[in-house]
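Why this split exists: single-chain examples teach little about how molecules sit against one another. For that reason, every record in the complexes split bundles all components of an assembly together and asks for one structure covering all of them. Below is a record exactly as it appears in the raw files.
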Amino acid sequence: MSKQFDVVVIGGGPGGYIAAIRAAQLGFNVACIDEWKNDKGGPAPGGTCTNVGCIPSKALLQSSEHYEHAGHHFADHGIGVGKLSLDLAMLLGRKDGIVKQNNDGILYLFKKNKVAFFHGRGSFVAGKDGGWQIKVGGAAEEELTTKHVIIATGSNARALPGADFDEKNILSNDGALRIDKVPKKLGVIGSGVIGLEMGSVWRRLGAEVTVLEALPTFLGAVDEQIAKEAHKAFTKQGLKIELGVKISEVKTSGSGVKVIYADAKGGDKELVVDKLIVSIGRVANTIGLNAEGVGLKLDDRGAIVVDDDCKTNLDNVWAVGDVVRGPMLAHKAEEEGVAVAERIAGQHGHVNFNTIPWVIYTSPEIAWVGQTEQQLKAEGRAYKAGTFPFLANGRARALGDTTGMVKFLADAKSDEILGVHIVGPQASELISEAVVAMEFKASAEDIARICHAHPSLSEATKEAALAVDKRTLNF
Ligand code: FAD
Ligand code: NAI
C-alpha cells in the first residue's frame, strides 16, 4: 500500500536532508529517500558532501597538514619529533570514522525531526491528484504518494573522454580519498578546487604531484591578485602546475598511467604517474529518476531546469543543489533546501547568490565572497581596493604562517563592500565576517570602525578595510 506524505525529498545530501528537516520543522509529514550505501550495504545519508566530498577531504587535509607540520615546521618552534612515520591505514581509518559519525548524525536528525527515511532509489511513477507517486527501489520496495517532491540528487564526477574512472589508476574524488599507498608520482588533471585540495593532501604525504590544467590562467574565477599569490605559494611547496595544456590521450598499464598532452606552446609531452586524479568538474545527476517518463525538463548539460525559486517545469516538483544551476557547494544546496521548504509552506524563502562564500581548503586557504577586481573592471564599475598582508599581522607571525593577504573591494562612491578576497591562514573562518557585512550592505568604513580582538587574524580584515581609505595602522 502506498504511504502518504506531504513532501518527499529524493536525495539525502546537504540539499536534500536539510530540506527534509526544514519541511518537518514547518509541520509537514516528510520522507527522504537516499540510495548511498556504506561498505556494509547500509544507509549512508549525507550525499557526496559527507561520503566522498567536503567532510572526508577536510579530514585528510587536516591529517596531512599535521604530518607536514611535524616534518617541516615543528623544528621552527624548537620541537623535535625524532623520526617521522606515517600510518596511512590509520589516517584513512580516521577519515572513515568521521564520515560514519556524520552519516549516523543525519539518521539521528531524521528521527529527531520525524522525517521518514527510505534507503533506496527514488523515481517518479506518475502524477496523481495534483501530487506524485514515487517508487523507492532497492532491497525493500515501497510506493509513496505525496503533494510535493524536492529533487536533490546531486552530481557525479566528470570523466575525461576515453578515460573512464577505474578508481584504481584513474581516480575520481572517490578514489582520490582512499589511495592505500602514497603514490611516488601523482598526476592531477584540472587545477580547480578538488585538484588543488587533493593534490595538496598527497603532496604533503610525500607524493610528487603534477597538475595539468587546460586553461591558460590559474584559478580563473578567483581574484587575479589572490590567485597569483596562491600560485606562488603552491609552487614553492612543490606542487608542479602546468597551465594551458591539451590532453590527447590517457593510457593505463598494470602499474600506472601515461598522460599524453600538448603543453602551452603546443609541444608534445608525456606524464607518467602511479595514479591519476581527474578533477575536471562535475555533472548533474538525474540517473534513475525517470525524468523523461514524467517530462521533467533538463538543460543541455543535464541539469534540471529551475526558475529563481527552484521550481521545475512540473507542478509541485522542486529541485535544489548540485542538480540545478549555480555553484556546486554544500552550503548553496542547504540554503536552497531551506528556501524551498519555506516556499512550500507559503513563506518567502530567499537565497542571496551574491553572498555565497567560496573556500578552497589548501594551505594557504583561499576564500572569497562577492565580485573580483577583474569582474568589476569588466563591468566598468568604479571601485576602491584595499589590501593588508598577513606578514604585518602579529597573530599570523605567532602562528608562523604569514603567507597571503586580505583584500577589500568597495564602491568608489558609496564605499559599499563589493567583494572580499582572502588568501592565507584561516581564510575559511575569516570570510564569514565579510559575508555578514555584505548581507547587511556594510561599507568598508563600517568594518574599519569595528573593534577586532588583538592579536587575531581578523585584524588583517579590519586593516584591509582601512586600506580602502589608505589609512592602515600597521603597514
Ligand atoms: P549530493 O551531496 O551529491 O547528494 C545527493 C544524494 O542523492 C546522494 O546521496 C545520492 O546517492 C542521492 N541520490 C541520487 N539520485 C538518487 C535517487 N534517484 N534516489 C535516491 N537517492 C539518490 N562543497 C562545499 O561547500 N565545501 C567543500 O569543502 C566541498 N568539498 C568537496 C570536496 C569534494 C572532493 C567534492 C567532490 C565535492 C565537494 N564539495 C564541497 C561540493 C559538495 O559536496 C556538493 O556541492 C554537495 O554535496 C551538493 O549537495 P547535494 O545535496 O546537491 O547533492
Ligand atoms: P572545478 O570546476 O573546480 O575545476 C575543474 C578544472 O579542470 C578547471 O580549472 C578546468 O579548467 C579544468 N579542466 C576542465 N577540463 C579539462 C581538461 N580536459 N584538461 C585539463 N583541465 C581541465 O571542478 P572540480 O575541481 O572537479 O570540483 C568540482 C566542484 O566541486 C567544484 O567546482 C566545487 O563546486 C565543488 N568542490 C568544492 C570544494 C570546496 O568548496 N572547497 C572542494 C571540492 C569541490
